[in-house]
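Following the same procedure, the fold was encoded as tokens, giving this record:
***
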Amino acid sequence: MTSHENNRKYRLGAVSYLNAKPLIQGLDAEPRIELVLDVPARLPAMLDSGEADCGLIPVIDVLQRDQSWRILSDACIGCDGETLTVRVFSRMPAEEVGCLHVDGDSHTSVALARIIWREHFGRELIVTPFTGAERVDECEAVLLIGDKVVNHTLLDHEIETDLGACWKSLTGLPFVFAVWAAPVGDELEWLAGRLSKARDAGVASAEMIAADYGPALGWPVAMAKRYLSQRLKFTLGPRQREGMARFVELVKKHDIVRTTGELVFE
């Protein structure tokens, strides 16, 4: 760590959902870090503009920066099967869905849905934003993420398709939705270590976090505890990297976004 970094303070962009709480455990009390909470889709712009030094960024956005950003620390938001909170709600079986209204808060989940429908169900999805102003009963299917899955009012959409479970069935691999990312070349050794330390503390106290934050976000406590302690995975290990590599391969195969790059790891 350089003397410059030793004296530095950091602005950190993170999401306000329950799923991010274990990653930011204790960081609000860290004098060298200022936390800024927003929806996932807003965080890349904060990093682009320099409004944040590091952000919890959807993987698809890191990929689109063509190696100008790198993944910092081994902390992430991922799953190894069912997520509970990245789900498509439909009025028909998943294999019959042709038009998907999507929650724009997560770019990675939208890309994942398109891949799953092509690879798993053999269908090309028409994807359109879901703003909440549409007549819900006219939507074939809606993709929701995060706490909204628990609080949704899609009562006529009784069929649920969990994208984490579908990915595991398709590839046999874990899936990573978001990672800590920062511009290539910026010296952030201290911050990378601090983020991993926060994750370790958060994972160790996941059930307490669920009980403390879950109810205010609309979660039954028992479900919140299961979600944070059993469903989500917060460590970016070798199998998670393998899952990310497979995701990148399929993104390029199906031309989901325009990129020629690869993910860059610290």
Observations:
- The first strand starts at residue 10 and ends at 15.
- The chain has two domains: 3-80+174-253, 86-171.
- The chain is about 35% helix and 25% strand.
